[in-house]
Amino acid sequence: MQGINDKFPHLPQRISGLRDLAYNLWWSWHPEGRGLFKLLSRQGWYLSNHNPVKMLNRLSKEVLEAACADPHFLRHYDAVMARFESYMDISSSWFCAHVADPKDCTIAYFSAEYGLHHALPFYAGGLGFLAGDFLKECSDLGIPLVAVGFMYPQGYLRQMISSDGWQVGACEMLDRENAPIRKMLGADGNPIMIKVPVMDPPIYLEVWKVQVGKTSLYLIDTSSDANEPWNRVISDRLYTGDLEQRLRQEIVLGIGGVRILQALGVDYTVLHLNEGHPAFAVLERIREMVESGIGFRDALDAVQRTTVFTTHTPVPAGHDVFSYHLMDKYFGTYLPALDLSREEFFRLGTNPAKPDGFNMTAFAMRVSAYLNAVSKKHGEVTRQMWRQLWPDIAEENVPIDYITNGVHVPSWIDRRLGDVIFNRYLGRTWLEEHEQKSIWELVDDIPDNILWEHHNAMKSMLIAKIRERAREKWQISGSDPRLVMASGVMLDPAALTLGFARRFASYKRPTLLLQDLTRLQRIIDDPWRPVQIIFAGKAHQDDQQSKLLLQSVFNVAKEQAFGGRIAFVEDYDELLAQYMVHGVDVWVNNPLPPMEASGTSGMKATLNGVPQLSVMDGWWIEGYNGKNGWAVLGAPEGEDRDERDASAMYDLLEKEIVPLYYDVDEDGISHGWVKVMKETIKMTGPNFSARRMAKEYTEKFYRKAIEASMKAEFGRGRGGGRARSDLFEKI
Ligand SMILES: *Cc1c(COP(=O)(O)O)cnc(C)c1O
């Protein structure tokens, strides 16, 4: 049905399994998978930017036939294919053994973005990587999840900085033929085409599939010629600033997404909304039930008891509010099919504290039985922020739980650290058992010189990568030498290196370290103990304020006085993130508390033994233990918060971090530093993995929602889940 057999026509029969392998992102977190493609053609792998589909499209028939005649390659091919097949067998999975037969309980997961691999630019930042890591982990555990999202053909913003420091990005079209995605075809061999019910003129959706191990991800594409020109651009790119377009996106994602699963025959029991964007999915689920003769109240009740909603941010811009006028325009003809009045519908989406429109978060919270924030602190903040939805309940009893985010360990661990060092000192099965605390205690047995040398090698690789990019840029655009200096060519592998890399948004305070340039220069310019800072990150194209922040950072990087020790590296993406979280010495994180719901990039760094210097917000409140990095105890509030937070960071750098890093023994190693590195790994491995997180979602929510739906099938439509019907009596 998926029409991939016509791909790679040159591929000989003997190694035709490479076709399935290339289209399954399994290779992206299994080194043996990547190794097989590298073995096929090292140069092809490099030139394709580590993308096997692109590589197989380009390799000549001769190369493929030669591989077929090479016993060494074939041995590896057979071994890798056997592992791949055994991985894909769901019957031996954790979920199957501990929860239920996956056949009976699919979970439909909806998210506006997914960060899976740099070849698939369908993400803006943390939310996307969280979703991507979650899909991979669900695959590893055999959690029967099917995911829905968007194929943003213009998702990739190629960031370029002009000589005055202004981000002048251009969107690059996704090369669909060369990406590991395939279009879903119907029985007639034509692309399947699904109509979104609400819209007039109608919108038709085509669907692409990404195979993420055992998890299927379906991506919506509105670019079909069957659509009116203004509808073709709905899925063009993430988070447009135009509210009407955004509403149309969310209708397409939520309602269209449910239609797609229906058309593909995906039967699911649980719906998981990752953030408020896809919440209209609930309506379409209800509509399906109403159509089959169930009344609205009962349908809502049944849907609610099997719906999970995860909220990801306290930042106001993260909560979409649509005007009633816009809602009328799009939902006028849809509501009758739900047996729902306009007033009742709007009440479901009203935020009593600010009743200025239809609030997607308020709506999602009212229609889901299982609600969670993404760290302990974020749980408190969210309960406070939304307590008005439960006016009769004390704030601490507001039914919003938390599940702290985690990162997918196989995706973010450096391969050498995992395969060579951990395999040796933690035991060969460390990865399979990585949520066990006791395994990580063995990190203390790693000889200091091994960890130190490994890290220095990673740092050299990062700096080499940055220089390679700078050289390319200079060769191609022949830019102003000062721009080249600012892009990191003067970085020194021997200097203490701080990294700040993430989406540029004002609450993340990217310029905080630059508050007092005189003091910073004293820290950086110490001839005996030099310090350097690498910045990277993109600003949203419509966000002028963040572009100004980026410009300030860039202009400081350009200043001769800093001697190239402050660098801004363009085009932050998954690949650069890998180099950065493995290669810098300290990961810097200084958002404005309590705006960072969790943060995950710091977990990627600490997993690799890179300690964090962070304000106390998000996951760091749970992660920091006094031995594994540094906590910035600045100002809890007040006008001069930035100043005081910055000053606390300089203090830590001057008094603790720099002295510790340069306190090297005769063997050239700072043993005190390596101790901190070990503590970071020991804390992150068991506590902040996507495995711990996915198991928590399963135990806290999925299991109960599955039970609730089973009970409903055997009789009455109640029980299970959190009883939330009282809420609806009031509307
Ligand atoms: C992990 C990751 C993020 C999230 O970073 P935070 O600092 O946690 O917001 C953003 N972008 C990329 C490329 C990432 O890998």
* Residues in β-strands, percent: 5-15%
Number of helices: 31
Outline type: globular
Which whole number gives the mean pLDDT? 93
CATH superfamily of the largest domain: Glycogen Phosphorylase B
Please tell me the total number of domains. Answer: 3
Tell me which oligomeric state these chains represent.
Answer: single chain
The CATH topology of the largest domain corresponds to: Rossmann fold
CATH structural class of the largest domain? Alpha Beta
Helix content, binned percent: 40-55%
The strand count comes to 22
Q: Which ligands, by name, code or SMILES, are bound?
A: pyridoxal-5'-phosphate
Poorly predicted regions: 714-731
Structural class: alpha/beta
Rg from alpha-carbon coordinates? 26 Å
CATH architecture of the largest domain: 3-Layer(aba) Sandwich
Amino- and carboxy-terminal Cα gap: 46 Å
Q: Please summarize the sheet with the most strands.
A: 10 strands, mixed
Structural commentary:
The protein folds into three domains: 2-88, no CATH class; 92-405 and 693-730, Glycogen Phosphorylase B (Rossmann fold), CATH 3.40.50; 409-688, Rossmann fold (3-Layer(aba) Sandwich), CATH 3.40.50. Helix 24 links the parallel strand 18 (531-536) and strand 19 (566-569). Residues 714-731 have low confidence and may be disordered. Helix 9 crosses helix 30 and helix 25 (574-583) crosses helix 26 (601-607). The strands form five sheets. Strands 1, 4, 7, 8, 9, 10, 11, 12, 15 and 16 form a ten-stranded mixed β-sheet that branches. A six-stranded parallel β-sheet has the order 19-18-17-20-21-22, with helices on both faces. The two termini are 46 Å apart. The protein has 31 helices and 22 strands. The radius of gyration is 26 Å and the shape is globular. The longest helix is centred in the middle third of the chain and has 30 residues, at 448-477. The protein has 731 residues and is α/β, with parallel strands linked by helices. It binds pyridoxal-5'-phosphate (PLP). Pyridoxal-5'-phosphate binds next to helix 9, helix 25 and helix 26.
